[in-house]
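Risk register update: the risk of archive-format incompatibility is retired. Evidence:
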Amino acid sequence: MSALKTQATIAHPDDIYELLIEMHQGLSEAESFRVNARLILLLVNQVGDEQAVREAIVAARRIASCS
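Archived output:
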């Protein structure tokens, strides 16, 4: 059984998307990479489910390689 949730579980995903875009405004490419990495680590800690995180990494990589 998969631990990874793939359906939206937040009420306003578009608002979160906008926050993510705004997070990068005024940052250099290097700063954007650092803030992304920090956000990912904070969210991984919040999730607290190693299997779900592993599945998310695989899914993200699979999606990125299809672009």
